[in-house]
Amino acid sequence: MGIFDKFKSQARNRGKQGSDSAEQQIDERTGGKYEDQVDSGRQRVEGSLGTEQDRNRPEQQ
User: What gap in Å lies between CA 46 and CA 23, rounded to an integer?
Assistant: First the structure.
């Protein structure tokens, strides 16, 4: 694995962590009222950033 692959992997991980954190905070503030819409939005963002992965599959490093 080259150095640029490491940076790419780290950026994806941080982006994914950020979107997961934002989703959790929004769900907490709204009491989960908009959970489906927030999850859909997170998936769209992760898809655009290329960080979307199967959540049942362990992350590759």
Answer: 12
Using only C-alpha atoms, the chain has a radius of gyration, in whole angstroms, of: 13
Please provide residue 31's backbone torsions phi and psi, each rounded to the nearest 5 degrees: 70, 25
Per-residue pLDDT of the chain (61 residues; tens, 9 = 90+): 688 888 888 888 888 888 889 889 999 999 999 999 999 988 888 888 776 654 544 554 4
* Cα 47 from Cα 49, distance rounded (Å): 5
Cβ atoms 42, 25 nearer than 8 A: no
Is residue 20 left, alpha or beta, with left meaning phi > 0 and alpha meaning psi from -120 to 50? alpha
Is pTM beyond 0.85? Reply is no
